[in-house]
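Hi both,

Apologies for the delay on this - the queue was longer than expected. I finally got the zinc ion-bound model through. Below you'll find the protein sequence and the ligand SMILES exactly as submitted, and right after that the structure tokens for the full complex including the ligand.
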Amino acid sequence: MPQGQCRLCGVESNLQLSHILPAFVFRWLRESSGNGYLRFGSSPNLRVQDGLKRHWLCVSCEGLLGRSETDFSAKLFYPFTSDGSNRIIYGEWLLHFCVSVSWRVLQFFKDETSLKGYEPDAVSRIAEADATGRHFC
Ligand SMILES: [Zn+2]
């Protein structure tokens, strides 16, 4: 397991291999795909069984984000996708989950693009969004 600085809390630690988008989404996609495989738009001819993962978080932060993921999947995702529900009881978990997913997607795009081609003003807004997301999570 690689050592490094956790992107969320900044502590040097063993970095967990975690999904950028939550694992339950890919589990559900596999189960509903008919053949157990997925295809991504970036490489449509390649069959895959899981989503992208990165070593970004310490075990504590991984657990922190995992709590709102668990709430989201149990209280919203599966009731809507499997049980035909159309109502939820809102809780803080929903905003936390949405911000954490947005923050992880931002980390991915920062890594993939190194923010090349973005205007300085955009880069500073991205840094602001990154810090806001990190503090909120
Ligand atoms: Zn951490």
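Main takeaway for now: Residues 6, 8-9, 11, 57-58, 60-61 surround zinc ion (CB under 6 Å).

I'll put the files on the shared drive as well.

H.
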